[in-house]
Amino acid sequence: MAIEGSANMIGYGLAAIGPGIGIGLIFAAYINGVARQPEAQGRLQTIAILGFALAEALAIIGIALAFVL
Amino acid sequence: MSSIATSVTRADGFTPPGPGDFNLPPIGPDKTFEFLGQEMFLGVTKPMIQLVLVAGVVFLFFWAASRKRAMVPGRLQFIGEQGYGFVRNSMGRDIIGSKDFARYTPYLFALFFFILINNFLASIPFFQFPTFSRAGLVYSLAAMSWLVYNLVGIRKHGFLGYLKLMCVPSGVSPAMYPLLIPLEFMSNILVRPVTLALRLFCNMFAGHMLLILFALGGEYLIVEMAGAYSVVGVLAWVLFIVISFLELLIQFLQAYVFVLLNAMYIQGSLADEH
Q1: Do A61 and B257 touch (CB under 8 A)?
Q2: CB distance B44 to B26 below 8 Å
Q3: B16–A60: do the CB atoms touch at under 8 Å?
Q4: Which of B23, B270, B11 has its CA nearest to residue B150?
Q5: Which residue, B166, B159, B120, B116, is CA-closest to B141?
Q6: What are the pLDDT digits (tens) for B100-136?
Q7: pTM for the model
Q8: Residues β-bridged to residue B42
Q9: What is the pLDDT of residues A35-52, one digit of tens each?
Q10: Would you call A38 an interface residue with chain B, using a CB distance cutoff of 8 Å?
Q11: Of the candidates B13, B15, B95, which has its C-beta nearest A1's C-beta?
């Protein structure tokens, strides 16, 4: 009946909020930019994916640490 | 797959799946040896077999697709051309630039389809194990990428010129250099391969873990805790199906991001001093 787990995972869930918001903001800005200036999509996409990757790296470091610690 | 089944112990409640479920037992002889005080396994595991298998499958597919090289492509050749064109145009030409992209397209192309098919193995019946949820295999990919973008830059700018390009930001007053140069060195040389590897590894790992959790948890709720709990169990299985589709998207996206970042790093190494 008991469901066991690690409190690390709750911590990781909380830690994932920040990168989640960050990724949302990045893509919101990207969509805005493309809507205003569709011809800039190529350049904006590169920047957006780079920003997304950097923000996501934080969440990824979080999940690695959640298992290691 | 056999290790997944053992993670549910019927006697004392539900044990959630953990990282241990990814340690598949070696196939064939199970020898161990000592290395630097650690016990190492000497054997072949499922991810290794998948790695070799995918390399063969990708090679055979594109070999078959490009064998005829007809002016009017057949079905197979069309698929091959679309895949090649996708990598060449959206990652090679748009990122690296129309001057240099031709030299690096084969690398990006091979990397993309190798990672993509390896990721898709997580959702293909019988395999059902993402190859890159084993960290060691991803480290080798990241090491290769690290070598490629650094060597490309060193060849273009010379060793010191490349270090200057990577570590000395332009348009900043020299007073800030003591602070910025170590930071830039860290982020451009040291952290890049680490995040490249961890991103692919953790996405595959976490996604597969999520699938195991919903499948086993739903099964436990339905089978062991009948009654009102089985409704929750059915709900868990519905979520399992939904997340499977999300996983398909992530598997593609991670292969895309890995190769896109590779292309961007190569482009950064090739860039003229700003």
Answers
A1: no
A2: yes
A3: no
A4: B270
A5: B116
A6: 888 999 999 999 999 999 999 999 988 889 999 988 8
A7: 0.85
A8: B31
A9: 999 998 888 887 888 788
A10: no
A11: B13
